[in-house]
Amino acid sequence: MLKKIFTLLIGAATITSCTIAEEVVVTDNGGVDYVQKIEMPQMAAMMGAADMDEKIEMNQISNTEFTYLEFLEKMQSMGSNKAPKNLKDYSIYKEDLNTIDFVKFRLDMRDNFAFEVINRAKSIEEFNSNSTVIENTFAVISDKEKARIEAEKLAEESKKKKKKKKKGEEEGSPFDELFSDNPLSNFSSMKFAFDGKTFSKIIEPEKYLKEYNTDDLETEEEKQIFASMMKQMKFKYKYTFPRKIKSVDVKDAMFTSDGKSFIKEYSLDELIKDPTLGNFNVELED
């Protein structure tokens, strides 16, 4: 999701020194409340100069959970260099995107400007199933998008029109960037297991790293900015369980005073070099 936010907001703010937090609460019956939060303090500073009407609107937005389609449209409208006419492109895949409406997005525009991706599941099995649904949904959308673009190109060629400029706009549009691959690959790259006493998390590195691949960014300048941004970012894990933690195989993990949560922070660069740092096993007390 980080790269997608970057492509929508580039020009509106320099997104540096962000912090990504993965906060997960596992309940006694195996339910999962998952939140991935991206904090952007530079944007918060910009919002501080807003007038009263704008601040009221910000509060309303901050209290709203959006579907993915709603979130994309809201983000695109905030991007200073994105044309409003592109908004209609997203609705082409509204029916497909409805299948992932269990994923919610929140834009907190109050203290620390932050984006949140939320997945509430009644069980570990449901959480893992949701990840599969996300993968399958964007695989279908990607295939449809490739077919749509190819059909348009063939139609243009058959009419013998000079579309050099238009083709450039098509290839560099935010619509193509968003739907050429799974924009939630970081989010859907993990699987959980929990038997009531032992919890484990496994990351699929290839899927995880798609979020940080710069190949599909439009220009060399954007690639350099995004790469520089990632080197300055932190990634914090906080996992909370229904009982005290007996052991966790995460080096130098910190614990909350009640012993039910562990916290571990890495640089994002460390995780990109070795995504398996995000894997762990937790044993709970009886």
Quickly count the helices: 13
User: What's the structural domain tally?
Assistant: 1
Helix content percent band:
40-55%
How much of the polypeptide forms β-strand, as a percent range? 15-25%
Radius of gyration: 20 Å
Short account of what is shown:
With 286 residues, the protein is of the alpha+beta class.
Textual characterization of the structure:
- The chain is of the alpha+beta class.
- It contains 13 helices and twelve strands.
- It has one domain (2-284).
- The protein has helices spanning 2-9, 41-47, 52-62, 68-78, 87-90, 94-97, 124-158, 164-171, 174-179, 185-188, 205-210, 220-232, 268-273; strands at 19-26, 32-39, 65-66, 103-108, 114-121, 190-194, 198-203, 234-240, 245-248, 254-255, 261-267, 280-284.
- Strand 10 and strand 11 (261-267) form a beta hairpin.
Structural key phrases:
286 residues, alpha+beta
Write the layout of secondary structure elements.
Blueprint: H1 2-9, E1 19-26, E2 32-39, H2 41-47, H3 52-62, E3 65-66, H4 68-78, H5 87-90, H6 94-97, E4 103-108, E5 114-121, H7 124-158, H8 164-171, H9 174-179, H10 185-188, E6 190-194, E7 198-203, H11 205-210, H12 220-232, E8 234-240, E9 245-248, E10 254-255, E11 261-267, H13 268-273, E12 280-284
Parallel strand pairs: 1-8
Antiparallel strand pairs: 1-2, 2-5, 3-4, 4-5, 6-7, 7-12, 8-11, 9-12, 10-11
Region (Disordered): 158-177
